[in-house]
């Protein structure tokens, strides 16, 4: 149960949409189920399935834009419901809400790069391997995404950070 | 650690628990999996034994990822009341797990999908979990009713083709906007001046004008101009194949205070056509 919940959390963060996360995870697990022998032979079946979720998200062919626009409003309403209708004015939460909404404006690859870098804590070489591009492209995606999110002005990159 | 990293982590962590109901996911996985297995069976009649081995392996091992355990994975093991109706208020009545399975199967077999359910939800004016809308639609289909519209075919992949000239042009316009130090704040102001409802459109229009050598009615802040210039230099550094370790070495070599300064200096030299003292 804990692993499924962890996978669902990952999918929610990756897709930004609870329903899309559900569709993606269902699709992936159903396919994983039918070829589990091969997957279980891999070094880390869990990592393999997470990678399948990433690929499924990046290649999702359904009506993205409609889902995307609709889900943003839905999600914010859901969050408010989950809080029992009590508005939390804590600055951090408000900022997180605003940032979450802005994340929905990113392209899929840009969003995936940010999720893999800051949520999954992967370095750029690992992300490049997962997404199938050069590490420089990962940095370019991240850089453009941060600009779009209006976070670039606040960047303070230290020497040891792989930006 | 950076400010933006903390902010992003906080946003991700704030929303990560808005997950769908694991029980509903589990039920649908079972259903889809059975469908895929039937399909595979049809394709691989001759290798029935191998398929059975795969299926058994799946049943025994996949539960590590799914709720329940190896003993109950061949059936849908819902805990009492775990049907996906609890997440949101609904005018659609609660359904038993078995009914949900039947209704979803009918819904998907008729060719409907997620997007259709979203449209149905709007048409029916119900604020319910989309899974429940799918189930209600499936129930109606099984009852011989027709839904308000036929299943819509999936559109082609909406991902932008990076080689599409229109996409390339827009990318160049956006790059011009950012590379000149403009940010969202200026895009909002420009959108107001140009009567555009979306500041994103203002970014593109502004970029187009900048590329055409025109002057914009709003100026970027000097700090952002400097930051954009630096970012362009840093991008050039990375694009050339250098990484942060190279930047640290260059910082020592050039007696700069940190790797960031080395990335900026390196990018500046690369853009000027110079060669750096170390190779990437």
Per DSSP E runs of 2 or more residues, the count of β-strands of chain A stands at: 0
β-strand amount of chain B: under 5%
**SSE string of chain B:** HHHHHHHHHHHH
Overall SS class of chain B = mainly alpha
Q: What Rg of chain B is obtained from the alpha carbons, in whole angstroms?
A: 28 Å
Largest sheet of chain B: none
Radius of gyration of chain A: 17 Å
**Which parts of chain A are unreliable, with pLDDT below 50 for 5 consecutive residues or more?**
62-89, 152-163
Query: What's the average pLDDT of chain A?
Result: 72
Describe the protein in words.
Chain A is mostly helical and 163 residues long. Chain A has nine helices and no strands. In chain A, helix 1 crosses helix 2, helix 1 (2-15) packs across helix 7 and helix 7 (108-119) packs across helix 9 (135-148). The N and C termini of chain A lie far apart (35 Å). Chain B has 280 residues and is an all-alpha fold. Helix content of chain B is 59%, strand content 0%. Chain B contains twelve helices and no strands. The longest helix of chain B has 22 residues, at 22-43. Chain B is elongated, with a radius of gyration of 28 Å. The relative contact order of chain B is 0.06. Classes of the chains: A mainly alpha (163), B mainly alpha (280).
For the structure shown, list the relevant keywords.
heterodimer; A: 163 residues; mainly alpha; 9 helices; globular; disordered C terminus; B: 280 residues; 59% helix; 0% strand
Blueprint of the fold:
The complex is a heterodimer of chains A (163) and B (280).
Chain A: H1 2-15, H2 18-34, H3 36-40, H4 45-58, H5 64-82, H6 91-103, H7 108-119, H8 124-131, H9 135-148
Helix pairs in contact in A: 1-2, 1-4, 1-7, 2-4, 7-9, 8-9
Chain B: H1 3-15, H2 22-43, H3 48-61, H4 97-109, H5 114-124, H6 130-142, H7 165-179, H8 184-193, H9 199-211, H10 222-239, H11 244-253, H12 259-271
């Amino acid at each position: 149960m804990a692993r499924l919940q962890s996978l669902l959390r990952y999918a929610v963060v990756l897709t930004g949409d609870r329903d899309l996360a559900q569709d993606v995870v269902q699709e992936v697990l159903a396919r994983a189920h039918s070829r589990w022998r091969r997957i279980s032979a891999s070094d880390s079946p869990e990592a393999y399935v997470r990678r399948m979720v990433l690929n499924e998200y990046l290649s999702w062919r359904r009506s993205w834009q409609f889902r995307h626009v609709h889900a943003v409003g839905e999600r914010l309403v859901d969050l408010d419901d989950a809080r029992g209708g009590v508005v939390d004015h804590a600055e951090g939460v408000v900022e997180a809400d605003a940032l979450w909404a802005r994340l929905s404006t990113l392209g899929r690859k840009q969003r995936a790069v940010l999720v893999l870098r800051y949520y999954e804590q992967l370095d750029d070489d690992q992300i490049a391997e997962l997404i199938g591009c050069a590490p420089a492209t990962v940095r370019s995606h991240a850089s453009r995404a941060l600009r779009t999110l209006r976070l670039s002005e606040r960047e303070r990159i230290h020497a040891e950070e792989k930006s | 650690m950076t400010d933006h990293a903390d902010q992003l982590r906080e946003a991700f962590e704030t929303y990560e628990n808005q997950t769908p109901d694991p029980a509903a996911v589990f039920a649908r996985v079972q259903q889809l999996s059975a469908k895929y297995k039937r399909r595979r069976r049809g394709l691989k009649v001759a290798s029935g034994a191998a398929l059975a081995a795969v299926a058994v392996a799946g049943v025994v091992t996949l539960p590590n990822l799914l709720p329940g355990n190896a003993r109950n994975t061949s059936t849908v093991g819902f805990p009492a009341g775990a049907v996906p109706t609890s997440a949101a208020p609904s005018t659609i009545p609660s359904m038993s797990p078995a009914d949900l399975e039947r209704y979803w199967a009918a819904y998907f077999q008729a060719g409907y999908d997620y997007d259709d359910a979203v449209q149905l939800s709007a048409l029916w004016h119900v604020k319910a979990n989309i899974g429940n809308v799918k189930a209600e639609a499936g129930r109606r289909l099984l009852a011989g009713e027709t839904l308000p519209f036929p299943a819509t075919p999936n559109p082609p992949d909406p991902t932008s083709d990076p080689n599409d000239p229109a996409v390339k042009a827009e990318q160049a316009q956006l790059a011009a906007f950012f590379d000149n130090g403009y940010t969202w704040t200026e895009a909002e102001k420009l959108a107001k001046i140009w009567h555009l409802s979306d500041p994103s459109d203002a970014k593109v229009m502004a970029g187009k004008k900048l590329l055409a050598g025109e002057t914009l009615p709003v100026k970027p802040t000097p700090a952002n101009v400097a930051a954009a210039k630096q970012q362009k230099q840093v991008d050039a550094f990375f694009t050339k194949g250098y990484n942060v370790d190279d930047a640290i070495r260059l910082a020592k070599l050039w007696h700069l205070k940190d790797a960031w300064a080395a990335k900026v200096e390196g990018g500046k030299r690369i853009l000027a056509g110079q060669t750096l003292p170390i190779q990437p």
